[in-house]
Write a structure and sequence with these properties.
single chain; 307 residues; mainly alpha; Glycosyl hydrolase family fold; two-stranded antiparallel ribbon; 14 helices; 4 strands; 7% strand; Glyco_hydro_92; Glycosyl hydrolase family 92 domain-containing protein; PNGase; peptide-N4-(N-acetyl-beta-glucosaminyl)asparagine amidase activity; 6-hairpin_glycosidase_sf
Length: 307
């Protein structure tokens, strides 16, 4: 599979993100083939793999704007490099794609860059490792410490039934001028309009899950996230609320949910970020885009035969 991904880059100019059989599917968030290549390299896969081209491929995702980032690569790279996040009102003159999912794209790009940093470090490309490790911290630029969430835990249509969650601080939309917008953290959960966060032009700023879920999606820096959520005790309570069935979407609906579960492994510990262990524990847990799931579940349909 790793050799096939690199061959696709060699012949088509970009790594795939949602390839199904011989067709390109739609990119849901980040350039998540980067994660798979980095994980494979760090786990020592070497036999017959052209890793210099593999590294060139992930750098292409991080640096070179895809003309059609609806199906491959990333969009909004000018904003990513200059502002440190994908603005909700982003304008991209270099490519074509849906201007939605600014929250989930920002944090997925952050994790993509962390994976590239780990790969670069292992390949002794120290300048690149430092560069992408710094970019991997861009997730924090979407965190609004003042945002709050009202929860409808009863299913009642009466607005008076809304209950303040008691927590504040969620990932929120942010505009190019630096100001924050607001997306109810419970939207895209079973509490509120959970079918509204797909790949449609009027979609929201998270994909297939709400900010209650995505706020925990910092698998590479839980030690940085936990203090922002009020410390170990508060973050565990916050997380437990997010797992209430009516707050959380299902596993099938919410791609990052398995990696957000990793939060609880570190929330009760006072430990520094462990970059070397986190990529091994989390990259494999993080569901990649549909293409990579397809490669696992339907390998024959996902084969690409090139001359």
């Amino acid at each position: 599979m790793v050799r096939s991904l690199i061959d696709i880059y060699r012949h088509e100019g970009k790594l795939p993100d949602c390839r199904m059989s011989l067709c390109q599917g739609f990119t849901q968030g980040g350039s998540n083939a980067d994660n798979l290549l980095a994980d494979s390299y760090l786990k020592g896969l070497r036999d017959g793999i052209d890793w210099e081209t593999g590294y060139e491929a992930v750098i292409s995702d991080a640096e070179e704007q895809s003309e059609i980032w609806t199906v491959q690569g990333r969009g909004g790279l000018d904003s990513w490099k200059t502002l440190g996040y994908i603005p909700t009102d982003d304008f991209d003159p270099h490519g074509v794609g849906l201007f939605t999912r600014s929250i989930s794209r920002t944090i997925e790009y952050s994790y993509n860059d962390f994976c590239i940093a780990e790969m670069a470090l292992e390949m002794n490309k120290t300048d690149d490792a430092e560069k992408y490790l710094e970019r991997s911290g861009n997730w924090v630029n979407m965190f609004d410490p003042d945002s709050r969430s009202l929860l409808n835990l009863t299913g009642s249509s009466d607005p008076a039934a809304l209950v303040d969650s008691g927590f504040q601080g969620f990932l929120q939309p942010r505009y190019a001028n630096g100001t924050f917008g607001y997306q109810d953290p419970s939207i895209c959960t079973f509490l509120y309009n959970f079918t509204s966060c797909y790949l449609n032009a009027n979609g929201h700023e998270t994909y297939e899950g709400g900010a209650w879920l995505y706020t925990f999606y910092v698998p590479h820096n839980q030690a940085g996230l936990i203090p922002m959520l009020g410390g170990p005790r508060s973050s565990l309570v916050d997380y437990s609320i997010s797992m209430i069935p009516r707050v959380s979407s299902t596993l099938e609906m919410s791609s990052p949910i398995s990696s957000s579960s990793y939060s609880t492994l570190q929330a009760g510990q006072d430990c520094p970020r462990k970059r070397r262990t986190s990529i091994y524990r989390v990259v494999s847990m993080t569901p990649l885009a549909a293409s990579l799931e397809t490669m696992t579940q339907e390998p024959w349909g996902a084969l690409l035969l090139l001359p």
